[in-house]
Amino acid sequence: MGRVAYVNGRFVPHGEAMVHIEDRGYQLADAVYEVWALFDGKLSDAEGHFARLERSLSELSIAMPMSRKALTLVLKEAVRRNRVREGLAYLQVSRGVAPREHAFPARHVPPSMVITVNAVDRAATEAKAAKGIGVVTTPESRWGRCDIKTVGLLPNVLAKQKARAAGAYEAWFVDELGFVTEGASSNAWIVDRDGRLRTRDTNANILRGITRRTLMDVIAEEGLALDERPFTPDEAKHAQEAFVTGAGALVLPVISVDGTPVGEGRPGPLALKLRRLYIERAQATSV
């Protein structure tokens, strides 16, 4: 049996899945999304992702397509039908289908929802973590509401391509004050020269990362010092360690910034420890 997608109430073969040409997500990026990491076929950080989905939809005045309980069942069924144990579940909700116009549809239209599920090679991701990744910096070019997880990701796409062209894995946006905001698809962290963990506070209009939030709980349980305070690319280059967090990356050590080695130029012990602790917590709390 091949891959299966969920599209507006129906499970269909992945290759036959489609949305209407006037879906506002397709034409206007009038949509939001969420991604759950899957451990042993279960949804990781489920509560946080559902809460953020509800907030993103509310900020854009898009209705929840169904109750959280029903959505949980649909997500789990999508995972089951795709027979994925380790991977990612992607959900997208748009304002719906209506004749193309910038303003909201004059009449109520039901939101559109799609779900896809992808397998992840955990051995490959562990190998990547053991090796570490490089990041490049790029000027902040995104809209002013990065706290909403919308599908309007063109600046992120261009940043990722810049990273790929430079032989790096991730790009870090840098604001007009010279501080790192976050990555193209992750939150950015360092262990500074004083040994304190630092990451940008969410009041700075960055995405409220769910992996970030869970890792902060792990950090508190470990009794580690944490500052929600911005840092510059230069501070990152002179830090003891650096790493990124996200549903796909989990906790991924950074070994270089713009080609400059971070620390000893290899994954730091604290980043690797936090990755292990996060995965253990995610596995134990997945639903």
Please describe what this structure looks like.
The protein has helices at residues 24-28, 46-59, 68-82, 122-131, 154-165, 210-221, 233-237, 269-285; strands at 4-7, 10-13, 31-39, 42-43, 87-94, 112-119, 133-139, 170-174, 180-183, 187-191, 197-199, 226-228, 241-246, 250-257, 260-261. The chain is an alpha+beta fold. Helix 6 links the parallel strand 11 (197-199) and strand 12. The protein is globular, with a radius of gyration of 19 Å.
Features:
287 residues, 8 helices, 9-stranded mixed β-sheet, alpha+beta, globular, 6-stranded antiparallel β-sheet
Sequence-ordered SSE layout with sheet pairings:
Layout lengths: L3 E4 L2 E4 L10 H5 L2 E9 L2 E2 L2 H14 L8 H15 L4 E8 L17 E8 L2 H10 L1 E7 L14 H12 L4 E5 L5 E4 L3 E5 L5 E3 L10 H12 L4 E3 L4 H5 L3 E6 L3 E8 L2 E2 L7 H17 L2
Helix pairs in contact: 6-8
Number of helices: 8
Note the main sheet: 9 strands, mixed
Number of strands: 15
Low-confidence stretches: none
Shape annotation: globular
Which H/E pattern describes the elements? EEHEEHHEEHEHEEEEHEHEEEH
Mean pLDDT: 96
Strand content: 25-35%
Which class of secondary structure composition applies to the elements?
alpha+beta
Based on CA atoms alone, the radius of gyration comes out at 19 Å
Q: Compute the separation of the termini in Å.
A: 25 Å
Helix share of residues?
25-40%
